[in-house]
Fold each of these.
Amino acid sequence: MRVLFLTPLVLLAACSGEKPPAPAPSTNAPVAAPMPPEPPVQTPVTAREVHEKNELYEFDYSYPAAAGAVPELKALLDNELEEARRELKAQATEGRKAAKESGFPYNPYTHTVEWKVVTDLPAWISLSTLVGFYSGGAHPNYVYDTVLWDRIAAKRRAPVDLFTSKEALRGAIRARFCEELDRQRARKRSGSGRGDIPEFSDCIDPTEQTVILGSSNGKAFDRIGILVAPYAAGPYAEGDYEVTLPVTQKVLDAVRPEFKAAFVAR
């Protein structure tokens, strides 16, 4: 038989007809943590991206938030966007008219620009892009472009203008550039049956290609990129070439005095 033991307090409540008081909440019960305050709403600096497609042309143009955060640079890129779109529309209109007069089918023209950050330094921002286009030829093509923005002067500069002259920069990088270019050529051509291609066997002038400035430490420029579009160093089938070179003391010696602080030799 089960025996029920009642405490005096329970017996007293039973005799008086009153309900026993509710037990006090345990001090060991978990307490819900207060909700953290909502973070302040911030309006992010967004990149601009434009896509336009119709029967006449297809146009794409974009740039990253880092570029959009610099008002003068944003204005420059916005102006280039509108100019590129106007030119594409005019060329496509003329191309469609010519195709109709000749009795040929018309294929819409295209223009594509996607700016990307090469490096973002306290005093500089370096961008590069592949500009793709089709204007009625046998196949689409592309070239490279770059923007080097001087934050202090609030202006665009050509990378080669940071050096005393094109000749000085060429003399500082040509040997290494040619060596790397030939190495890449050999890799692309091995097993292809092409071997040496007479018209694409000599070295080319690196300063006549798209020169970009980069950084591995986020503090100063310590490398130079040479972007080579199709047909410049090889046939279209080989595509482009990209050669990256370190900033050596020889390169540093070719930098203009007022820009030397922006570079460091590796």
Note: The helical segments are 8-16, 65-68, 71-102, 166-189, 249-253.
Amino acid sequence: MASQTRPRRRADAERSIARIVAAARACLSENPDATIEAIAAEAGVGRMTLYGHFKTRAELVDAALADALEVGDAKLAGIDLSGDPTEALGRLLASSWDLVAESAALLEAAQGLLPAGRLRELHASPAKRMEDLIRRGQREGAFRTDLPLPWLVSAVHYLLHGAAEQLRAGNLTEANVGRVATETVQSVLRGPAT
């Protein structure tokens, strides 16, 4: 009898964890300062249940950000990045905008809670995808080579997160944020007019 209840309890716990992480993603994407109480209510669990799975707010934010980046990375892995680097960059940015907006809010929630090394670790795969594309664009003469590659990757990252912040602040709209972010990133990578 005990062997039958243990797997059921584990499955229940996994479903509870998944609900809590989904609720944390939703709440923190809307408000990076969302309370544990609001997240627990969104998940349909009590605070004690939430704290039973995530001992601290930092653990919960880490799980939400990791989940969002993992789902996003799987989506972006399917984008065709072959052909003209500028066009490939446009496809990557267009496909990633929703993910950037969510992860920017989650990143804001993570600031001060998670160590910088953990944040870099979580962003490693998306950063590598962008780095590989920029490197190829540099080799093919589409992107500037006068600035260090890691700096360009970081600049793109900061521009996209800045666009998400401007959207939340009401300075950009859903209708224009993707275009504004893409044009800005492409202008940075092309470099100054000669």
Note: The chain has two domains: 1-55, 57-194.
Amino acid sequence: MTESGSAPGTLRPGGRTARTRAAVRDAVLTGLGEHGYPGLTVEYVAEHSGVHKTTLYRRWGGIEGLLADTLDLAGEDDWSPPDTGSLEGDLRALAREAADSFTDPGQAAAPTAIIAAAFQSRRAADALHAFYAERFSRCERVVHRAVERGEAPAGTDAGAVVRAVSAPLYFRLFITREPIDPALADQSATAVLAAVRAGAFASARAAGRPVMSG
């Protein structure tokens, strides 16, 4: 723990410390892309970030702490979900962005390695969960806008909708190890859109259906 009581690498200071944190983040991502999680070492991060390894151990505790802070820092960006003017366009854009992030050779190595790390490290898994929970929370606004425009039923579960868009893509990528492409991303968005319009994601109470009890 640091003097403030926070876990190593969890502070969000500015100035030189923020630059150091960003340099370490960049080195971690580069190392993940080149060597994957099993091959990433503190020595590698030290060499490529310019931060001495004793400092890395003191502030982050090791590779797990470095990876967790990399995800934490990624969640502090200013990314916003698409706003195309329609639910169909927004869902399609979200699906394509998810697909691109794991199929573009220039982008895919690091996030793929982070996913793999979550199966080997509990701390990495917790950090990944927090990252995606925050990301999906931002994406919910596309569904809220759709409800306001009358494109989706009142009571539509925004969180379930945005997760459903990327779920088939991630299943193929990490479970069945099948290729994905823009056409598959569009198919996923179209299927979710149809389910939204049919009320599949709306609560029974909001949709006016009788609520079954035990």
Note: Residues 1-13 have pLDDT under 50 and may be disordered.
